[in-house]
Design a protein that fits this description.
Distance between the termini: 96 Å
Strand content: 15-25%
Number of helices: 12
Shape: globular
CATH topology of the largest domain: Alkaline Phosphatase, subunit A
Length: about 475
């Protein structure tokens, strides 16, 4: 017998066995050791509506999460709900694919473009079960736009902006509550239903399969409605509107508490990443029509920040944000500037999902936050394009923030956010060279902007009031 050939054959066999064993082990690790991911979005929650920012509403569950995880104190979203969700689920600025203007409203026919790769699609390939509970807001006119066609294995909730939290109708009076792609009739307050379904999903889930569950709440956004049991507990608020709004914030906190408790009972909390933030700033105080003839006033609190939802000032896009993962992320309070598009890249990194060119064809704007979250490292210096539309935009570099309003009368504002977070003083005339540099970068971004799908949709015939650039209730006076 040829001993050399024998030993070579034996070596090949041992190598194959080792490789097979290793690959099998990796397979087991990838199935059971990948963290579960729970992503909770509140709607129009103000900066100071949470207890850990000094708010008047009791939010013990949110505060506990903040005390154990990473508090991101300079977390930026987009001014509107659909734009924020689009940035989160694509890792890209919405102006690149037409979702920069307003939200997708109940009568609109467009959605996030089908050639954009969404987070649940990428996580599906990484072995995750993907669930969306609550508001979709990224397209509802055709079946191809629905969440179950864009990577979510299961969907329960509404497709369009809410017109009534109890009746579960949208802003043009149509019933809007689905399980999968089937419209269903459910009784109860929308946020309560989402909280109960969150518990149910966790209770029935096989822990060996990694879970991505996005909980997209319609509260505490308008209309101002809340269950009586929570309104009765609001003793600090002075008037009925404030009591109702406070109850809605309390209910968001209640849902988060139910989710954490369910994870604890299941024994998977330690290996679960929980992300919590608002989709944009709280709505500024203004009167609006509720649709039944009554006039109401929003009562959110953006703390020291100027303006609110729909605005490019800090009050519209700087939101309370927390990331908690007991196994890997220590408690920290970071002032590093984070953009919601960073979450796509970061979560795919956590999940071990591919960001290779064959899978991630389009370039990303978001960056990986893991060095910050794991080691509290500084993020690389970068220019943040806060948004670009046909009507203006905003951009940030270091502590400098430029806001441009191109509609007449046009204006340009420069703020030193580090020293003036309230944006009280426009320092444009004092620092023209900085303004020129930022304006050049904003103009470069504008050249890359895709036409607004919202504005294109305005040309279609319809019977409903279609605001030009305002994203609120279509029945406003």
């Amino acid at each position: 017998m040829n001993l050399n050939r024998y030993f070579r054959a034996l070596a090949y066999a041992l190598t194959y066995m080792v490789c097979f064993s290793t690959s099998a082990h990796v397979g087991l690790v990838s199935a059971s050791d990948k963290p579960h991911i729970i992503y909770i979005l509140a709607n129009d929650l103000g900066w100071k509506d949470v207890g850990f920012h000094g708010g008047n509403v009791s939010t013990p569950n949110i505060d506990n999460l903040a005390a154990s995880g990473a508090r991101l104190e300079s977390f930026y979203t987009l001014p509107h709900s659909s734009s924020t969700r689009a940035a989160l689920l694509t890792g890209r600025y919405p102006f690149r694919f037409g979702l920069q203007t307003s939200s997708i409203l109940s009568w609109n026919t467009y959605g996030v473009p089908l050639d954009e790769r969404l987070l649940p699609q990428a996580l599906n390939l990484a072995g995750y079960k993907t669930v969306l509970l609550g508001s979709w807001l990224l397209g509802h006119e055709t079946r191809s736009q629905l969440p179950t066609q864009r990577g979510f294995d299961y969907f329960y909730g509404s497709l369009t902006p809410t017109g009534d939290h109890f009746k579960k109708i949208n802003t043009i009076g149509l019933t809007d509550w689905f399980e999968g792609e089937r419209q269903v009739t459910e009784f109860g307050y929308a946020t309560d239903l989402i909280g109960e379904k969150s518990e149910s999903v966790i209770n029935s889930h096989d822990p060996m399969t990694p879970l991505f569950m996005m909980v997209s709440l319609s509260s505490p956004g308008t209309p101002l409605q809340a269950p009586d049991r929570l309104v009765a507990k609001q003793t600090v608020a002075k008037d009925q509107a404030a009591k109702t709004y406070s109850a809605m914030v309390s209910q968001v906190d209640e849902v988060l508490g139910k989710i954490v408790a369910a994870l604890d009972r299941k024994g998977i909390r330690e290996n679960t990443v929980i992300v919590f933030h608002s989709d944009n700033g709280g709505a500024v105080k203004r009167k609006y029509s509720s649709g039944d003839g009554d006039t109401q006033q929003t009562v959110s609190n953006n703390g020291p920040f100027r303006s609110g939802s729909g605005s490019l000032y800090e009050g519209g896009i700087r939101v309370p944000a927390i990331i908690s993962w007991p196994e890997k992320i220590n408690h920290m309070i970071s002032t590093e500037r984070v953009h919601v598009s960073d979450m796509y890249t970061t979560l795919l990194g956590i999940a071990g999902a591919s960001l290779g060119k064959n899978e991630q064809i389009k370039p990303l704007d978001g960056i990986d936050l893991l060095p910050l979250l794991y080691e509290n490292e500084l993020l690389p210096k970068r220019v943040l394009v806060l948004n670009v539309t046909e009507f203006g935009g905003a951009i940030m570099m270091d502590d400098w923030k430029l806001i441009v309003i191109s509609t007449l009368p046009s204006q340009m504002e420069l703020y030193d956010i580090g020293n003036d977070p309230s944006e009280d003083t426009n320092v444009l005339t004092k620092h023209p060279e900085i303004a020129d540099k930022l304006m050049s970068a904003l103009s470069d971004a504008a050249w890359e902007m895709s036409p607004s799908l919202y504005l294109q949709d305005l040309s279609k015939a319809r019977i409903h009031y279609t605001p030009m650039i305002w994203g609120g209730n279509p029945q406003r006076p």
